[in-house]
Amino acid sequence: MSTPLLISLMLGAALALAAFSVWRLYQELGKAETIYRDRPPPGFRLLWPVINVFANTFGPLLSAAREAALLARLRKGGQEYALTPRQFFAGKLVSMLVASSVVWLLAGELSLLGLLLAATLGFMYPDIWLNDHTKARNLAILKAMPFFLDIVTLSIEAGMNLTGGMQKAVERTKPGPLMLEINRVLRDVRAGKPRVEALRDLADRLDFAPVSSLVSALVQGELMGSSLGPVLRAQSDQRRTERFQRAEKLAMEAPVKMLGPLIMFIFPCTFIVLGFPIVMKFMASGL
């Protein structure tokens, strides 16, 4: 056998062995526990094995404090059972690589500053998505609270206890983030956790002022043994008032928000349309 052929065979075997090793590494590191987990968000689902590889490889770089902070943010956004802090951090890394690669492929020659800017935006995008998702989730909770509290109030005034009233309200209310959290409270109570602790855990998970106010009033009423009907009715009225105030605030902010597009786009076009005939008349008269 000639030497070039032997070298070619050895090189091919080495490449095949390297490809097999990378594939096995991808299979091992790309796995994640899915039995007790929710489906990941769509953006993460597209590159889920790659994200798990990055999570298992670079996850240990997260400090304990940073991991706890990410877990609190995921819990507040309702993604606690869909993503772990390490997977979320890996998603940021993958997003950084994807953004920089796409910009480099589309732009061709690009300066180092442009690549760094694209990588920074890609790294920040999962945080922006999580913040927007949390705001939308809190808004859905705020909208669902008055009707939910009305059902609980009617149930308690009809003779049920708080747990039974919450269960009845869950059955009568449309599914949504609030119902998911209340179901979790009911599961905790059925598992043996004291109702006061389950409610406090709800406030800690959401870290949302209206929910914290409601939980504080319920816990105080539970500990003092007072009737919860008037407390819940007052909370329902307060949530409705807050919702109307928020709508009024957005309506009052609309004219201010329109000033920017008005000045930048509408006014210049209007002045061009009005001024063009005048300019043409001046030019035709030789001025």
Describe the structure.
- This protein has 287 residues and is mostly helical.
- Helices cover 82% and strands 0% of the residues.
- The longest helix is centred in the C-terminal third of the chain and has 57 residues, at 228-284.
- It is flat.
- The model has no long low-confidence stretch (mean pLDDT 82).
Using brief descriptors, characterize the structure shown.
287 residues, flat, mainly alpha, cell membrane, membrane, single chain, transmembrane, 82% helix
Concise synopsis of the structure shown:
This protein is an all-alpha fold and 287 residues long. It has 11 helices and no strands. The longest helix is centred in the last third of the chain and has 57 residues, at 228-284.
Number of alpha- plus pi-helical segments: 11
Q: What structural category characterises the helix and strand content?
A: mainly alpha
Percent of residues in helices comes to over 70%
* Integer-rounded radius of gyration: 29 Å
Instruction: Tell me the span between the first and last alpha carbons.
Output: 93 Å
Shape: flat
Tell me the series of helices and strands, N- to C-terminal.
Answer: HHHHHHHHHHH
Main sheet: strands, sense, barrel? none
Protein name: Type II secretion system F family protein
InterPro entries: T2SS_GspF_dom
Membrane topology: Multi-pass membrane protein
Keywords: Cell membrane, Membrane, Transmembrane, Transmembrane helix
Fold blueprint:
Blueprint (H helix, E strand, L loop, with lengths): L2 H27 L12 H5 L1 H11 L5 H13 L8 H23 L4 H46 L4 H11 L4 H14 L4 H12 L2 H16 L3 H57 L3
Helix pairs in contact: 1-3, 3-5, 4-5, 5-6, 6-7, 6-11, 7-8, 8-9, 9-10, 10-11
